[in-house]
Amino acid sequence: QNGRKIEQGAKSESKPIKGLRFEVLGLKDGKYRIVLWDTWKGEVAEEWHASCVDGRLSVSFGILLRDFCLIVERSWQ
Asked: Partner of 63 at 20 to 30 A CA spacing, among 3, 15, 22, 34?
């Protein structure tokens, strides 16, 4: 419990990151489902589909408030 209170205190001191963009390399070309997992709440924050071209899957965020986890899986839709 004390550790969580310290984490929550640190959260209020963090600054948002705007316009974060990166690529996931080495995937097979095709459509992928991307899930943004909120590690603080333990739930899905956002979900979308994107296409991988030439082994590059581009990911971007408008604003990122804290740490995150991405789940990237091949979409068969």
From this structure: 3
Q: Are 32 and 72 in contact (CB under 8 A)?
A: yes
Decide: 64 and 22 in contact? Cβ < 8 Å: no
Take residue 22 and report the two structure tokens written for it: 């990166």
Quickly list DSSP for 5-34: HHHHHHHHH---EES-EEEEESPPSEEEEE
**40-77: pLDDT as tens digits:** 899 999 999 999 999 999 999 888 888 889 999 999 86
Burial label for 52, CB within 10 Å (0-12, 13-18, 19+), is buried
